[in-house]
Task: structure prediction
Amino acid sequence: MTASRLRVKEVAKGLKGVQRMASRRDFLTLSAATLLGGRIALPSSTSIRAEQIKKEALRKKLATDPQRPRYHLMPPANWMNDPNGPIFWKGQYHMFYQHNPNGAFPESMHWGHAVSPDLVHWKHLSIALSPTPGGPDKDGCWSGCAVVDRAIPTIVYTGVFPQVQCLARSDDGMMNWRKDPGNPVIAAPPQGMETTGFRDPCVWRERDEWFLAIGSGIKGESGMVLLYRSRDLIYWDYLHLLCKGRKDELLPGNDPVSTGEMWECPDFFPLADKHALIVSTLGAGRYVNQYFHPEIQGKADLGDSYYAPRSMLDEKGRRILWGWLREGRSEAAQRAAGWAGVMSLPRVLTLGHEGALSMAPASEIEVLRGRHQRFEGLPILPSSISPLKSVRGDSLEIQAEFEPGACQAVGLTVRSTPDGKEQTSITYNRTSGNLLVERERSSLSPDVERGSSGGPFALAGDETLKLHVFLDASVIEIFANDRACLTSRVYPLRPDSLGLGMFARGDKARLKTLNVWEMRPISPNRLTA
Ligand code: DQQ
Result:
């Protein structure tokens, strides 16, 4: 066991340590003023006005952008990626996230902050963390977690560059955050280790000690998670590897996913009588003497949009997982849109069949259900689409159960124009044993990801196919038979891409039941809060 006391005690002078609600721009202005020996250099009223006009124009554009979801959380504008430090505290759900408030591109990471009483409706709060010029996070406040230490909410995050671990605390109910003057609290990976990365701390408590798991890896080998221990969140001892991947490991079903050379955003927690570790792959296993032994591995989401998930425990004892839904269109399109990145719906984790992780949408979302329609016992003829003509919408919750019979594939078409020029299929392909979102015709735009996205999924014997689908503008989140999730992004251009239908290929199938609800937005516009 290597002991490394890594805290840098040196306290830098000047501005380091306090970082709060001021925007990065205000903060830079304040820094400049301080450096100018107390003379305050304020931006001119003309430039403030120009900035306000620009912001107002962006708000207006975003409020009516048909690609912006209406019931998923996202920042009011600009870039977002990983969920950070989700935490239930004093009756409210707090969500932080990687955020660039200066544009719809990943640069100069801040921690955005939103709060919710019910997991569904959100209020945006001031930015929690911004890079401190000259500080260990001068190039960005990267991902991490939030814990409560002796009643004080504390963020543990990665400062860059180089990648180091930092602390920030709040004394006023998570409104303002002060950085620890001794940051970084962990200044480098364990001595002698040549890592591919050293970031995204996940902290938990066991009796009177804190543990910290950090994402890392070895070049040419595998991803790994390093384990540290501390009594006070400040002085950390490196213990050992909590878990390490195996080179070119395949997931069950021979899914050709290498576990990679770097594991980002480890999320480690107890679940029923097991522990779970979520990195870029996911699994459950035993946690014995601070070592994690995976028993089952799989993908948190079969699609290509869901990434960097983080979980929280709420007051009901539920383990709730959030993920970043990345965009599926070009960087230029994202910049032009003025926003990028969406938070997934909250997913409640349980241990399912044979100890595999099972995810279900939190029941709180049902509060958004509006007009309801139900269909029952409909035959689905092969090789054509049977539209459900009375249903239209890009903001829907759908629960469908199919009897596949002898067909090769069965599923739903969503976001279809009446002429089918734009349409997306959600397909269970029995022949290939996959669940897919087929996006060949999702959008007339040349600037979007096409092709199928999905992965291995098989029904047992005469099991029915149960699809629970959430459509929200450019977001599609699918939960299948309580054991698979598939998230995708689509960007239909035509305003009439609102149709819902069903299809079977190879032979007929049958729709047992379909319930569909129009979903209410969580804010009067598309600005989330
Ligand atoms: N995003 C963060 C990193 C993390 C990555 C930077 C995962 O901390 O490893 O925005 O998406």
Q: What stands out?
A: The pocket of 2,5-dideoxy-2,5-imino-D-mannitol is lined by residues 81-82, 98, 109, 142-143, 158, 199-200, 264-265, 307-308 (CB under 6 Å). Confidence is low (pLDDT under 50) at residues 1-39.
